[in-house]
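User: Quick sanity check before I run a bigger batch. Here is a single chain. Can you write out its predicted 3D structure?
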Amino acid sequence: MENNQQAAPASPSIPSSQIPRDHRETVGDYTVESPRMSARDVNVHYGDKHAIKGVNLDLGRNEVLAMIGPSGCGKSTFLRCLNRMNDTVKDCKVTGDITLDNKNIYDKKLDVVELRAQVGMVFQKPNPFPKSIYENVAWGARIHGLANTNAELDEIVETSLQKAGLWNEVKDRLDAQGTGLSGGQQQRLCIARTIAINPEVILMDEPCSALDPIATAIVEDLIDELREQFTIAIVTHSMHQAARVSQRTAYFHLGDLIEIGATNDIFTRPRHELTEDYISGRFG
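Assistant: Done. Predicted structure follows.
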């Protein structure tokens, strides 16, 4: 796997005191050429709480974007905006524009079920269905009408499990319960379930936080392989993980997107004082 951390000379950081306290402008270029998803002036309110403040950010094709920052900074809230998971949260209001392939995902005419097939989600804790391994993967493909025959469904299941790096471990026990797998295997099963419905984007909310180091390494290798076919956004509390798996990194702080840039630059020569403080461990 590519290691994005390299030694580099430090550059002067931008003091946070020079940025207005009510809203901090993002340091770095938040745009990419030909983005798969784009967010512009996105704000999220939970009642009176302003959780996300005017965030602008693009997700590039065939890249892994890591979102980092201290607990409660808004990174998971922003991630859930990208497939409208916040729709299920009471008193949550999302404003601004978010597009997938230039189409507004908050259009009232949009089918949210279809959106979540295009923008899949892998959660912090593995959540396989209480069904067989086979049915865990086949369920979405069957619901969305992606297979016309049992043979086609078999092929989708096998291909998805192969892409998730799980096929060789479970091919002889597809009828076994998915909940009976180890934690790392369950998370890869959930990734296979996501892949099976042919998403364009995969969102991952701390996918390795409940896994041991060996399972984490397997999932990180998998993320690197999946980048060849998918756009991936990952929220992580592990800066080492962000450095290992991502090409771009976004640093969030108190609802603001403080800095965005190439992962190597963010970790070796951050431009904003808040980013430098977090990377160096002075807070967070």
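The chain has ten helices and ten strands.

User: Great, the batch can go ahead then.
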